[in-house]
Amino acid sequence: MSASDQDTPQAAAEGLTPGQARRLRIVVASVLLVALATVLAVRLASRTSVLVVGVYGLAMILCGVVIELSRNGRTRLGTWLLAGGLLTALAADWFLLP
C-alpha cells in the first residue's frame, strides 16, 4: 500500500493509520513529559522530598519509555503503559505525598 492509498477517504474513515497513531502517541507522551517536569519543579519549590522526586521522576521515565515504544511500533502497549502509569502517579501523588 503506497502513501497515496492511505490518503483516500476509505482509509480516513477507518481511523488513524499506524504512522499517525505512532506520531500521536509520541506527541502526547512528549507533552506529558514537559507537564510532569513543570509539576515536579512546582512541587519541589513548595516542599523538598525524595518521594516527590521519585514519583514524578518515574512518571517522566515512563513517558520516555512510551516515546521509544511508539517509535518502534508498539503503540498499543505504549498507550496502556502511559494510561496505567499516569493513573498510578496521580494515585501516589494523592495518597502518598504529604
Helix and strand arrangement:
Blueprint: H1 3-6, H2 9-13, H3 18-46, H4 50-71, H5 75-95
Helix pairs in contact: 3-4, 3-5, 4-5
Count of DSSP helices? 5
Largest beta sheet, briefly?
A: none
Beta strand %: under 5%
- Average pLDDT across residues? 81
Fraction of helical residues: over 70%
- Give the class from helix and strand content and strand pairing: mainly alpha
Pattern of helices and strands: HHHHH
Rounded to an integer, what's the Rg over CA atoms? Answer: 17 Å
Distance between the termini: 54 Å
Q: Give a count of the beta strands, DSSP E runs of length 2 or more.
A: 0
Low-confidence stretches: 8-12
- What form results from the Cα inertia axes? elongated
Can you walk through the features of this model?
The chain has about 100 residues and is mainly alpha-helical. About 85% of the residues lie in helices and about 0% in strands. The protein has helices at about 5, 10-15, 20-45, 50-70, 75-95. The chain is elongated and about 45 Å long. The termini are far apart.
